[in-house]
Design a protein that fits this description.
Number of strands: 14
Bound molecules: nicotinamide-adenine-dinucleotide
CATH class of the largest domain: Alpha Beta
Number of helices: 10
Shape: globular
Length: 323
């Protein structure tokens, strides 16, 4: 059995816990949250021990994997503390709020020899994995351009309102746009774009609005992106429209449809049986897939090859320098 501990049991922490509960070979041995009421019942149900201080948990527990799902500003500190104790670590995105901090975390992973993975879930999202395969295999010819978006209302429901605090969340570039930017660099094999153009409309003082529109060019291929916290009840919506030489491929957040020159739209099936995220998306296996990948690679002592350090530090380099 792999012994897993989770730190940060809020919105996304609960999604991760649901995924671990589907794994026969994983035992959730400890949960940590600064708000004890968030873990008391869960610990009793799981037979796990509860902590309000992650340092105390790391000092007392023998764990194979620490999963960090706290607010973003503290990922680095907790990741380094755990890795120094020889614990394998996965952390929610963003790994950190600047490129140098991300490099420090990777350096610590290399020095301590533990396995480390940032949970960039789109790399495990079946609909986005299908897009990656189409680009690699040139199923519909070359990718000419694509639009990737994730837009919705500002998240005013987070613990201590940390999401609304730029120092603690980095706002939309680090919270939402980072998903699509990371996926674009992954599609382009980690290369830096030749061109970057950013437009941003922000008003977090008198409204809660941060709207990012960014274009990235790689040779002749163009990516247009949009990410937003709107000051409105607009429901969360994410997806892509990819324009290949021989087809348009659309993911509208619900289904992927391929439109060729002659055929009417054909919907691809992915057979998700997974977990609800609590946001306006259909149930997905993506969070299960990413955590299953990490658990397998720890159990079998295989290198974490789903993402390269350079891809992730390049993402933060772009955000540091252009937003
Ligand atoms: N991959 C995705 O799709 C996705 C979606 C949402 C959030 N996230 C990421 O997940 C992380 C958590 O976001 P969330 O929406 O769950 O936030 P949240 O505010 O709902 O939950 C954060 C939890 O951490 C706890 N906490 C705060 N400081 C702590 C500390 N020092 N030690 C232990 N617990 C602490 C809070 O009490 C709260 O329960 C963020 O980094 C965010 O970027 C990822």
């Amino acid at each position: 059995m792999l012994k897993v501990a989770v730190v940060g049991v809020g919105g996304m922490g609960n999604v991760h816990i649901k995924a671990y509960r589907r794994m026969q070979d994983v035992q959730l041995v400890a949960l940590c949250d600064v708000v004890p009421e968030k873990i008391t019942d869960l610990c009793a149900e799981l037979g796990a021990r509860g902590y309000t201080d992650y340092r105390e948990m790391l000092g007392q527990e023998e764990i194979d994997i620490l999963d960090i799902v706290t607010p973003s500003y503290i990922h680095k500190e907790i990741a380094i503390a755990a890795m120094e104790k020889g614990i394998n670590v996965t952390t929610e995105k963003p790994i950190a709020l600047c490129e140098q901090d991300a490099k420090d975390v990777f350096d610590c992973a290399k020095r301590t020899g533990v396995k480390f993975m940032v949970a960039h879930v789109l790399r495990f999202w079946p609909e986005y994995q299908a897009l990656k395969r189409m680009v690699e295999e040139k199923t519909y010819g070359e990718l000419l351009d694509a639009r990737l978006f994730r837009i919705g209302r500002a998240p005013k429901w987070s613990w201590d309102n940390w999401m609304m605090d730029k120092e603690r969340s980095g706002w939309v570039p680090f919270d939402l746009h980072i998903h699509d930017l990371d996926f674009i660099l992954y599609l382009m094999d980690g290369k830096m774009p030749d061109g970057i153009q950013v437009h941003r409309i922000t008003n977090m003082e008198t409204a809660t609005m941060d709207h990012v529109m960014a274009a990235y060019t790689f040779g002749k291929t163009v990516f247009n992106t949009e990410a937003a916290w709107f000051d409105s009840t607009y429901p969360f919506t994410a997806g892509f429209l990819a324009h290949f030489e021989q087809a348009i491929v659309e993911y509208n957040g619900k289904a992927v449809t391929v439109y060729t020159r002659d055929e009417e739209g054909k919907t691809l099936e992915f057979g998700a049986q997974g977990d609800s995220t609590g946001i306006n998306l259909p149930d997905t296996d993506a969070y299960y897939n990413e955590l299953r990948y990490f658990a397998d690679h720890v159990a079998q002592d295989k290198p974490i090859d789903c993402m390269k350090e350079e891809e992730l530090t390049n993402v933060l380099n772009i955000i540091d320098n252009h937003f």
